[in-house]
Design goal:
This protein is an alpha+beta fold and 677 residues long. The longest helix has 52 residues.
Length: 677
Amino acid sequence: MTGQKKSQEQLLDMGTILGAFVQATEYAFVVLDPHGRVCYWNPAAQMVLGYTEEEVLGRKLQEFLVPRDKRTIYEEILAELEREAKSKHLELETLTRDGRPIPIELSILAVRVEGERYIVVVVRDITERRLTEQKVEDQLKTLTTLYTSAHKLSVNLNLRELAREVAKSSVEIFGVSFAWVGYAMADGNVKPLFGFPQEIDYPWRIKVRWDDSPEGRGPTGTAIRSGFPQVVDDIEADPRFVPWRDLARGFGFRSSAAFPLRSRGHTFGALNLYSFEPGFFTPERLELFQAFANHAAVALENARLFEETQKRMKHIEALRLIDAAIASSFDLRVTFHVALEQITSQLNVDAACILRFDPASGLLDYAQGRGFRTRGIERSTMRLGQGLAGWVAQRRFVLSVPDLSNPPKPLPKAFRNLIEKEGFVSYYGVPLVAKGKLLGVLEVFNREPLEGNDTWLQFLEILGGQVAIAIEDVSLFSELQRKHEQLLDAYDRTLQGWARALALKEEETEQHSQRVTDLTVRVARIMGISGQELEHVKRGALLHDIGKIGIPDSILLKPAPLSEQEWEIMKKHTIYAFEMLSPIEYLRPAIDIPYCHHERWDGSGYPRGLKGEQIPLAARIFAVVDVWDALTSDRPYRKAWSREKAMEHIKQQAGKHFDPKVVKAFFKVLAEVGEPV
């Protein structure tokens, strides 16, 4: 057998094998003749496209397989195959014989047989691949959407703005018709935080709860209570939606879903979604919405905690400001002003006032207020048990009146008029009690419905406690001050009694002691002494000769000049004064005059020979006044000097006996009181 013949036989065998493969394969094989008509159609092609071989032989693919929008591309591919032998690929949507659309991929290759060009087309049904690709694309889109929405939520810590973003994203990104975020309140109600679109007021017109009441058994309440999503495919048919169906129908809602907002182990609210389409919430969408709700829950809880922290910081600062006002002033007007300012701003209420209780009259009287448009509140006077404030004072617990048009007891006419003129809607009253004693009532008013939560109410009570402390502190201080003043008055009367007794012993008039005291105080004041120090100067002047109690009467009352020995004994009265007064803490600050008023500017005085400013200023002042009064008064051993002579003597002693500055101030005082200078 020749080699050529053997090769031909082998090719023939190979052709037989390939033919058998093409017939048996699951891939659709189509062969087009040189005129572009079908000349071969394997069984798989019939299985994929539904056409039998008899139906397609002699026809062009453009006639039944390639749609109009792909024919130009298909024909360009055939033209290219004239120039190059590379295979080409084309994806398109076609219809099977029974009209079913399917995506297919055409792999097109040109081959030459005995000089003629044939086209081999492999047709693959790519429905599964397209589904896989679509699923991947949907998942990617879902992830992108979740990422975008999560990013939007993560950059905001304002609770209301964040609730708005959650509702808005649900509509604009996820395609629901309406969305609102509800917060589970401690009293069982569900409070709408925000809804979108905003023109739909549905959440604010319905009553929703999350307890086991009839209003709590709907989708929202059940989602919060159970922690699982609740879906209503058809609002018209679902019995759970009966309480809200009529209103929902009016807005065009056909289906709804409620997703629990859960973070850190507890459910605090719900994301409520509505669609104009029944059956909108498919399992795929539910999975997406639940993922979004989880993101929203974390963001909302973080925002709530942030706002709560900020609010507590402001509360602490408010209490600090009130404490500072209490500590820095015993003027209740100042403290009340600060307290009322913090109460209205931190509690976000329109007005507040403080009524003080007078135990003697049994009345609550207006003390101070803030935020009132009229002055009617200033005339408020209540007896215990009368009106809301009287009721609060009598029972000593916080009273909340969310609706003043429906009070728990009849209101006095004046109070009704006040409410009407001010436009108040809500009221809170807090008893002001300290150490078991009723001190007054703090009243809070608002011109819109006001339902404070536990934190709000707790802070209101704390603020009331601070106001009560302020009143108690000022009352205690006032009482202490009153008793202190009584005690000081008793001390001063005692001192005056001592001075009077000494004056009687020396046979001086009581007017002498009062004269030198008054004149000393005048000079001291003009030289800058004031306040408590001036009081000590006054007492020192009053007791200037208290030490003479220890001097024998034979020397003290001697009508003639004293001997040198007697004079030495007389000088000891300053030391006796020091010994008498220094053990008495109250009189110790007043000791300068009794102890040092006989010291001289030039250092020649007694008892210690102090010089210049070593001598206490009070003693320097009194030295001038005492000599002036002595020279201008009759004494047992001489007559009074004339005023001119006495003044001349004082002028001459300036810089010797007396401090020149004190002399100058003394003359100025004499001029002011009408004495000749």
